[in-house]
Batch of 2 targets.
Target 1
Amino acid sequence: MAAGLLLLRLGLSCLLSSGVGGLGGEFSPGHSAGSLPAAAAAVERRYLLYDVNPPEGFNLRRDVYIRMASLLKTLQKSSDWALVLPPWGRLYHWQSPDIHQVRIPWSEFFDVDSLSKNIPVIEYEEFLAESGGPFIEQVYVLQGYAEGWKEGTWEEKVDQRPCIDQLMYSEDKHGYYRGWFWGYEETRGLNVSCLSVQGSASIMAPILLENTTARSIMLDRAENLLHDHYAGRDYWNTRRSMVFTKHLRLVGDEFRASFLQSSDENDKTIFHEDWIKVKQRPSTPLGGPYLGVHLRRKDFIWGHREDVPTLHRTAEEIHSLLKKLQLKKVFIATDADRQDLEELRKLIPEMVRFESTWEELELYKDGGVAIIDQWICAHARYFIGTSVSTFSFRIHEEREILGFDPKTTYNRFCGDKEKNCEQPTHWKIVY
Ligand SMILES: Nc1nc2c(ncn2[C@@H]2O[C@H](COP(=O)(O)OP(=O)(O)OP(=O)(O)O)[C@@H](O)[C@H]2O)c(=O)[nH]1
Ligand SMILES: *[C@@H]1O[C@H](CO)[C@@H](O)[C@H](O)[C@H]1NC(C)=O
Ligand SMILES: *[C@@H]1O[C@H](CO)[C@@H](O)[C@H](O)[C@H]1NC(C)=O
């Protein structure tokens, strides 16, 4: 189960076929830019849109963005494309009541100028304005192969196939397709069809370039595509371009200063907003004088996973780390429910948390609060997270970008009775 889970969480194909290291490697499009007619440059730009399976959370979606960005880079080699940023909303975990949490533009969470230095991106509302209305010419719903794959015979492929699951789109009386479309009810799809895919994101390039002339193409269930090259330079460039929006970073920094005696100057955590100018790993920072912890609870404990510890065991581990690291403070980011929080407070009286007021929550939204938590964990002297949580993975990456010693980053809690408690993999940053 663990390998399958990790596969989805990382979007890696190489975990499936042992010994084939080059799988999911760089893709070369069917034809080079040079073979295109000269007039191609004058053709209007085309739009790539995408969405992800509704139950998937914020941090897996951030990973799918990286996969789509590499597809876009492949498309760019042949013609002019822009990636349309799928508005945030209706996420299963964003359940704070009475707060409007749909149609949230990316600019609420990420610095769009920084994203633009990696690939051409536009917000959905810009797409509506630019493309002349709420129409998406072609929707491809991505799915696996009904017959599955045969063990050991991994090949990359994509084929038009009948839809396996019930289509989440329905035809209206004008023959247009209606669907979720990120909460934009007026949006219509002109054509919806299903594609079975097995492979990395860029296997879609020939289809988008050669099999359709649609100017706007949406890939739904885009998480079915894997990474072109996980943790390579292209991956890290896209990851580094995903700079959190400034106001959220500032809230995190103010919290560090007020409650954790932590400042960039003292901690030697230098963050360059203009990521493109950073050409090498920064010198190793010290980090703030606190232990950073991410405790994923909720659905991670409902399944009684053996790699997730009890709160009692968690508290023991935290206290032993504080002693070993000679730290007094522990910052805890968690999705724990009220009851768990009360118990945590008893077990770890020195716990520091970012607790937002209703007004703050309304302003930053659940996604913003999660980012603030991640930002604070990313600046800690030492971090320990939860096994196979993409929320924790994104903190690893943020610390890798800041240049932390991997020993202080790639750590996770072990289940109370876990025998082989393998620690997270160090994915080394590449510039
Ligand atoms: N503020 C905050 N929110 C959290 C924390 N841990 C989990 N969450 C919330 O719960 C969500 C995590 O659950 P999911 O929706 O399953 O997905 P995910 O973001 O891909 O992350 P994982 O499930 O942990 O792999 C996050 O997106 C947050 O909204 C935390 O430490 N702080
Ligand atoms: C794309 O076009 C090629 C050539 O016409 C065809 O063989 C292939 O089946 C098409 N693929 C899809 C997914 O439509
Ligand atoms: C819809 O798209 C599919 C895949 O490109 C194509 O085979 C089909 O002919 C299209 N249908 C219409 C009505 O255009």
Target 2
Amino acid sequence: MTTAASNRVKVRIRCRRCGEKFILRGRRDKGRIDTGFRQCLCDNTEDFEIDEHWE
Ligand SMILES: [Zn+2]
């Protein structure tokens, strides 16, 4: 186990087109969040509502 600082984040993404929700774990990397998320099931790639929850 590590006691590393809060560079891990839980990201909740909601698609504004179809309403699908995703919960992902990401890392902060040089000012941006890297979750690996690419697109929604409906092919939406940019119209999302994103909540970040730092741990
Ligand atoms: Zn969608």
